[in-house]
Amino acid sequence: MDIGIIGGGINGLCCAWQLAKQGHQVQLYERDALMSATSCASSKLLHGGLRYLENREFRLVREALRERDAWIKRAPHLAQPLRLVMPIYQKSRRPGWMIALGLFLYDHLAGKSQLPKAKRLTAQEVIRRDPLLKSEGLQGGYEFSDGQMDDHALGLWVAEQARQAGVSITEHTEIVELTQDGKVTTANGAVHVHDRLINVAGPWAQRLLQASALDSPYQLDLVRGSHLILQAPCKQAYLLEAPNDRRIFFVLPWQGNTLVGTTEVRQTLNKPIACSPEERSYLLNAWSHYFPDALPNVIDTFAGLRPLLRSAEDPSKATREYALHRTGKLVTVLGGKWTTSMALADKVSHAIY
Ligand SMILES: Cc1cc2nc3c(=O)[nH]c(=O)nc-3n(C[C@H](O)[C@H](O)[C@H](O)COP(=O)(O)OP(=O)(O)OC[C@H]3O[C@@H](n4cnc5c(N)ncnc54)[C@H](O)[C@@H]3O)c2cc1C
């Protein structure tokens, strides 16, 4: 079949690669440059999403854990295992037994993973690894496995695999309208007709449907997440509770510096996707709570917009699941994590028939 794909983020690229491997003729349209939107503004984690267990997203966590391992095998030069520590303090909202139970389940859902299982640490062991971490009230912690990637470089590597499989990629070409009959119109008025169309435009997927007078049974909830890059080497990767609202945030090693994120702020598409002063101070406060003696120097910030399926008032409780919606020759993808992009592509390859 001749298939048109709209969106050159990780989900669009994985769909293109997968469909080309199956023998389809694939044309991908990207409005800007490949991998220039949400997919290069992630926390760089290939993960099952430990915190999604609190929302009982067992199917998604199992799929994401298997995909985490698959990425590490598929592209070991750009995706590596990462050990994270979750310290437990006297005042932690999540008690030690809850973390132990969650990690037991996490390892179980990972199946026959090649990554080491979770392990309990004493307070002394936690501090020995990182003497700058706040020791007051520290009761111990747990370390567990996930993966880390260079999201931009890994996405471009997928694009290269897709090209080699025969995908034709057109950058700087915006699709302004599509139809259920497989027709797309570009911003400069060119019209192309495909046997199937995949709308995988991330946060913009629903707006494209609306601009084309098409409905969807799913609504997107657009939630910005910001990160800071601190000029300091990071001795240990952490999953931490923010002191005020007890949300989970990450402190991660990133290219010799420290990556701190993220936030959850609803926004619309007509506003710039950038880290606000409030998010910057929220993240700095959270970081300083755990590293009171370190002086942070913020060298960069970045932000992305999560295309979540609308499901809850509190964005941190919103589902991270994705959905496919087919009408005529058009398949629209709504939601989707970086980690699960190949599994999503596999489902899209079945939805086109
Ligand atoms: C702050 C943050 C942290 C995250 N951290 C992680 C993480 O650590 N691990 C993880 O697994 N997931 C993470 N995610 C989720 C993950 O990054 C996203 O779900 C994923 O990148 C979405 O990819 P996508 O291809 O659907 O969207 P995008 O990457 O946004 O790609 C959509 C593309 O479509 C293009 N486009 C839009 N409209 C048109 C049009 N009309 N015509 C042509 N092209 C168009 C856009 O330019 C864009 O390039 C995070 C998300 C955020 C926001």
Detailed description of the structure:
By secondary structure, this protein is α+β, with helices and mostly antiparallel strands. Among the domains are: 2-39 and 152-219 and 319-351, FAD/NAD(P)-binding domain; 220-309, D-Amino Acid Oxidase, subunit A, domain 2 (D-Amino Acid Oxidase, Chain A, domain 2). The protein is 27% helix and 31% strand. It is built from eight helices and 19 strands. The strands form three sheets. Strands 3, 4, 5, 6, 12, 13, 14, 15, 16 and 17 form a ten-stranded mixed β-sheet that branches. A six-stranded mixed β-sheet has the order 7-2-1-11-19-18. Strands 8-9-10 form a three-stranded antiparallel β-sheet. Strand 9 (183-186) and strand 10 form a beta hairpin. Helix 1 runs parallel beside helix 5 (151-164) and helix 1 packs across helix 8. The radius of gyration is 21 Å and the shape is elongated. The protein starts with a strand and ends with a helix. The model has no long low-confidence stretch (mean pLDDT 96). It binds flavin-adenine dinucleotide. Residues 6-12, 29-32, 36-39, 41-45, 47, 174-175, 200-204, 208, 225, 262, 304-306, 336-339 line the site of flavin-adenine dinucleotide.
